[in-house]
Design a protein that fits this description.
Layout (H helix, E strand, L loop, with lengths): L16 H16 L3 H9 L1 H5 L6 H9 L2 H6 L4 H10 L4 H9 L3 H9 L17
Helix pairs in contact: 1-6, 7-8
Length: 129
């Protein structure tokens, strides 16, 4: 796998060709939740339903644990994985707060205040100094 310029940006999971190939089946599972009958099957037997997709065990665990960042690291596309959040009755702010490990109120405040501080969040190589 070749090094990309954006590999040095912390907390960035760019959905490129590599991630697309890695997360294809995870994302197809997420897309399946567009159909009511699939949502019903997933609600009734989450593990069994996930086994119908040739995902990795790590991807299945991330879904079951609702490990939002883990799903992105494993090739999930945020627009697809958000379908699971919707399934759970979550908002985008709920999911963002969970990914940021802060309360929803703190996450909203952070957004209103202009986002994360730039210092220490530009490049991973800054952390090595």
């Amino acid at each position: 796998m070749s090094k990309k310029d954006y590999d040095d940006i912390p907390g960035t999971y760019v959905f490129d060709g590599t991630q697309n190939r890695k997360g294809y089946h995870l994302n197809m599972f997420c897309m399946s939740l567009n159909k009511a009958e699939n949502r019903e099957q997933f609600a009734a037997d989450p593990e069994g339903y996930l086994m119908t997709f040739p995902m990795t065990d790590e991807q299945r665990k991330a879904v079951l644990d609702r490990d939002w960042l883990g799903m992105l690291r494993l090739g999930g596309n945020i627009y697809y994985t958000f379908k699971i959040a919707i399934f759970d009755g979550m908002t985008m702010q709920d999911a963002g707060a969970a990914m940021s490990q802060v309360t929803v109120e703190d996450f909203k405040k952070m957004l209103l205040d202009g986002g994360r501080p730039v210092e220490g969040n530009r490049y991973k190589s800054e952390w090595e100094k």
